[in-house]
């Protein structure tokens, strides 16, 4: 080689050495390659220099870099790959004509070899303008190989340093967060930053519900997920290559100290085998993420446990505070909705044969609608047959209009007898966890005695204030309610009712039929009044009705309806007479005694003037 050519090579090597300076910001192999091409072009004075590389997997050539900015980098060239390789590998320099498509415009093609293995090609165009021997071009190619080898090694070091800095940063971020979604999101963000061309999925079980747009798959055992399940069960990295789909896959277990929480699937495109250099980093990332997931899960479990204990403690306190049954049920319903994220909560009493049921006041409104009947029938039958709690993740009953998929039902058992059940539902399938189911069982089992005591206490109270024959309230209870109303409300109406010719009924049919008549009239009264109205047995065949906050004209309509209904519905047919009186806040001297006397006088007039009628004795202004 001539002295000038040797000097040119020396200058080129010196320039290459200057390029390897990280302070210039050349941190990526592609940058080094492009700077190298421009340096060679400048030194030897060619028009264009392009570097080609081989994709052994797709068996294609592609442009890796060029001094011609108009060329499409990474453009693939389909050719007879084996024939091309055989042709160029045996030569150190190839002159025009180059017998392959897409190389017609180049005058010289030089293979780039290291250890006798070709890893790329340099293509020269416009070389006629420079005075370079073949020996010089081959020597330049050798120096380019050496430079690229050093550059790749440097980039690998820089890349590894950058990745481990990222891993350190990610580790800090992982352990500063107790949010499972935040940990999963950080895994994906890191992979996207480090491997922008790879594809990745988080393969998790049904117990993990992400609320963010993350690439998450359910981890299920099937023919497509054998490697994933192997990684999950063994806790070791699994590799899988797909020649047909031209990709290589890695399955890294997300592993903590107590178990494996999922699998990270990483897909490398156009790779025969997964790059060894990436396996270590992805394994470290997966292990770090697994530990962070475990910590987040343990933290969430501890918070859930504290919340459950608080719920149990508060529930026990409220159940032991002698609440009314409806108040107790309302309290339990609200807590089940908030703690279990339940859409509907119902507490249901059942008959001995489970054919009839009664929804306890305080349950959600759905259970008092027609749409609830099919669910109550289905659950009642299932509890009757299985005598156990029910935990359904995907309920499917075709004829149901409102589709609740997740259902939990726990029987209320007292003295080995099922008295009813508690039921919670949600439209989403698999919405309730098994831990939630166990908590509900515990709460219902500990609450049933309190429910029973509340019902017995209220039944006893009802017996004290209720006439045992007519099931109407007692006279004393009615008197107390009227006196309270007169102190709190603005007005009200009192109706005194007498069964016409009752003595004649007893004498003709006997006292048993007389009692049945009383029951029939009482039933008519109960069917025609509001929940807030108070019906009572006043004494003997006399009954009474108090209508709080009802004007006199409305009360008269109600009384006339009762007179009509009694004559239509009783057997033997009987009639009643009604005396109606009212009070208003405007009359300060008015009291219960005067109210009763006016009604009694009106009733007397009704009885004396033909019976089966309504007479009014209103308050005098």
TrEMBL record:
A GO CC annotation given for this chain: plasma membrane
SMART domains xref list: GGDEF
Residue span(s) of domain GGDEF: 490-619
MF terms in GO: diguanylate cyclase activity
Domain of life assignment: Bacteria
Pfam families tied to this protein: GGDEF
Record protein name field: Sensor domain-containing diguanylate cyclase
Organism: Robertmurraya kyonggiensis
